[in-house]
Amino acid sequence: MTNQDLSERVGLSPSPCLRRVRALEESGVIDRYVALVDPAKLNLSVTAFVRVRLERQDDTGLEIFERTVASLPEVMDCYLMTGDCDYQLRVLVPSLDAFEDFLRQKLTRIEGVSQLTTSLGLRPVVNRTSVPVAER
Predict the structure, then answer these.
(1) Are the C-beta atoms of residues 77 and 87 closer than 8 Å to each other?
(2) pLDDT digit string (tens) for 68-126?
(3) Measured distance CA(41)–CA(126) in Å, rounded
């Protein structure tokens, strides 16, 4: 969206609108700009949710896992969790064979991984990219 379009949409003139956007960027509220890609159009049709347990939850074990998993392009999201697992991953791959390769060749080889539990996503029901901002 252009600054002109945004300013018209929010009811500001272009200059103050641009100043506010720049302030949001500089303060880190706007983290980055992205393009949303349809995974199916890239033959990435399998979404797997993987719950990971580590042997130990010490700082070294967490750091090794987090650094390694951040380097895996198949991992779309990784959350440190409470409850019965240490991490939950959202993994995107082209096929079940590719997912098996990902598990066997990458995920299970990370030092400290003790247990994996996987659920396959059938289809997204809610998939938002915007955050819930309260109106003021």
Answers:
(1) no
(2) 999 999 999 999 999 999 999 999 999 999 999 999 999 999 999 999 999 999 999 99
(3) 19
Indicate left, alpha or beta for 79 from its phi (over 0: left) and psi (-120 to 50: alpha): beta
| Span 34-79, pLDDT tens digits | 999 999 999 999 999 999 999 999 999 999 999 999 999 999 999 9
Share in percent of the chain as helix, strand, coil (round to 5) = 40, 25, 40
Q: Which class does domain 39-121 fall in?
A: alpha beta
Strands 46-54 and 113-121: antiparallel
- Rounded-to-integer distance, Cα 19 and Cα 26, Å: 10
CA-CA distance, 136 to 132, in Å (whole number)? 12
The structural domains of the chain, with segments of one domain joined by +, span 1-34, 39-121
CATH class assigned to 1-34: mainly alpha
pTM over 0.90: no
